[in-house]
Amino acid sequence: MQSEFERLNDVVIDLSDYENSEQLNYFERARIKKRIKSKLGNKKSFPVKSAVVVAVTASVLLYTGTQTNIKAAFNDFASNIPIVRGLLDLFVGQPDQQIAEYKTAIGQTTTSNGVDVRLDEVLIDTGRLIISSTFHSNTVDLGNISRPFPSVFINDRDVFEHGGGGSTSVNKIDEQTYSFISAVDLRDTSIEGELQIKIIYDNLRDLQDDEIYKGNWGFSFETSAEQLLGDMRTISINRSLILDNGQEIQIENLELSPISTRLNYKMINGTEFDVHFEVHDSDGTILKPVSATTASENSHIRFPKLDEGTRTLTIIPYLLSGKEGGSAAERSKEKTYLYEERFEIDINH
């Protein structure tokens, strides 16, 4: 007797009922197969945690790529692939889906030059935009390309023309499929009110032979960060310290969001010394930084979301050499702690 999975292999899928079925790409075909596979198994009941849903309308921008066209019944499937959805949660250190109400699920796919790109999820946090996308190709070796980093426009404002930057991490799904998570620094970009966001990936570069795979993969959607902003807290600090060389550090505030904790400060009158901060929670545990922008007028250090039981934070400034050259490991050996400048923050105040 054939098993359910063996019978699945014998199924012939008739796509004639779907418009432009010949244009179905890797992701749409995977959706259909997954949907049929799920129908074969026994249905189980799972508890559902209610969450505030962020309203979103999304569309694929037509550049040199082609827009996919599938039935609306499958439009929500891409954001429900566990391995893709879970990567963004792991990236921000919350794998238990506590941030579901702050994410925007997109699930739109566009194809250009033999590469399918699906925009999976987007998360807005204090001063940053986190983008999860999946790339698939049977013709381009995605394992050899430089990590793609998108152009981002918020309300028609180019983020990178206003001091934005960021980084991208990669996760291999299979030989033809890779997921990329990009953290985009928003700097002076406002995230208040309704946001019209455009995300555009373009040419991919092969790291081995420097070949360029030309293409444009663009997406546009509307969302709002009001839920996040409503659940944020800002604790004013307003402390200053002046170093012997005349450098001044103005410690402004601590931003507490459901996603992360961010310490904001300014560096004035030079960067001979790069100033960082070591943060201890009320149990004495040192918080591990997840990202930072330092040695600049508008500096910050980002830490994970605080544990529920955290009552106080102890903050200790320390200095690193601001000189050019040398590895991060070499510079870290030159730490000089300013214990006399330590201070405590009451989180519950």
UniProtKB/TrEMBL annotation:
Name of the protein this chain belongs to: DUF4179 domain-containing protein
Species name: Paenibacillus montaniterrae
Domain DUF4179 residues, every copy: 52-136
Entries under InterPro entries matching the protein: DUF4179, DUF5643
All residue ranges annotated as the DUF5643 domain in the record: 233-346
